[in-house]
Structure formats: C-alpha cells, structure tokens
Amino acid sequence: MTEERTTAEEAGPIRDVPERVKRIVEALLFSSDRPISSARLAELSEAADGREARRAARQLQAEYQAEGRAFAIEEIAGGFQLLSRPEFAPWVSRLHNRQQQETLSKAALETLAIVAYRQPITRAEIEDIRGVQCGHILRSLVERRMLKVAGRSSELGRPLLYATTRYFLEAFGLRSLRDLPQRKEFGPPPQDAERPGEGEDDDGRQHEEEQEQEHEHEQQSGEQ
Fold first, then answer.
1. Which of 26, 69, 99, 140 has a CA-to-CA distance to 149 between 20 and 30 Å?
2. Strand segments (E) across 77-219
3. CATH class, range 101-223
4. Which residue ranges make up each domain of the chain?
C-alpha cells in the first residue's frame, strides 16, 4: 500500500529535493527506532519545511523501491520510519528473537480490537461485548502501552474510558485510525480528530498508571 501510494505521488511533477537534504533525512530515519514526523525531520535537517522533508522521505522510498532494497520508508503513526521489508521478517526475527506478538493472547487481541473501533469505551461496555470480565486484560494492555486511560465517562459512577495509543499505531504499522480494516460488527474506524495517544510523554504514562491503580481499587471494592 505504501509503495503504491509513494510511486503515485512521486510520478507527478514534484520538485527534486537537494541530495544533501535527502541524505540527512535518510541518516535520521536510519538512526531512529520510532517514526519521525515531517515537521521534526525538517527541524533536524536542512529541509526548508515539513513538505520538503516529506518529499525527501518519499523520494528516498522511490529510490529504495527502484533498487530493490531490503528496506523501505513506511508512513506510520503520523511519521516516517525506516523498516525492513515484510518478506525478510523471518530472518530479522531470528536476529532480534522478538516474542512480543506471540505474547498477545487471543483474548487480548479481541479486547484491543473492541477498544480500537469503539473508543473511547468503558470496561463495562467491553465486557458486555465480549461476555466475560476483562479487567486484567485491560491492565496488561495499558502496561504494554497499547491502551491508555482517556478520561472518565459521564455515566453513573464515572467509569474510566479506554482508548488506543500512538504506540498501538506503531505496533500494527498503521498511519492513523482510518487505516483500520472495515468491520461490520464494529462499524467504520473512528475518526482521527481525537488522535488517541498522540503527544504522550512520561508524565502522561505515569498519570495513566495512577488512574489504572484507582481502577483496580474500584474493581476490588465491587467484588467484595
């Protein structure tokens, strides 16, 4: 998808970016293990603005595609990231011995999908859809930074609301929530106006953990 989009955009009469700017952008992407926004690339490089940085990233991607490189520049979570191509995943996995995806159980994936399509959503609403309690699964997904506490509902008792994070987009290779597949049972993907998880920092995560602990306390009180 990204390759087709990049090829279409680069095929038009787009002004070439100076070679030096492209190489600086390339070095920045190579050095980062997280997506970098076009505005941030412009700030760090000699690009005139975010649009030129974006053109640099897309022209680099066109070069990689034409040369058949083993890596590509993907647009993920509102930024650009240099990644190995999917067909080389078996060999890259051997190097890193990554097990994160394997540790996400079916129940966790189901819960994550419900939140992704219905966010912001309360624990009670999730449990009503799944038919089982999911407090421990929600805590686990918050700890993994896939979900965050997005506030409180106006319903009786003001229960916590859950939403996906920017890390969720990164982990699943999504540019935005609009890239979620269409699912009849959930309805269309949510709009990106709220951008759940964007702008997170350590203080924000700490606040989420404090709210999650409060949630645990509420759960224990209700079960007694």
1. 99
2. 79-84, 121-122, 147-152, 160-164
3. mainly alpha
4. 2-95, 101-223
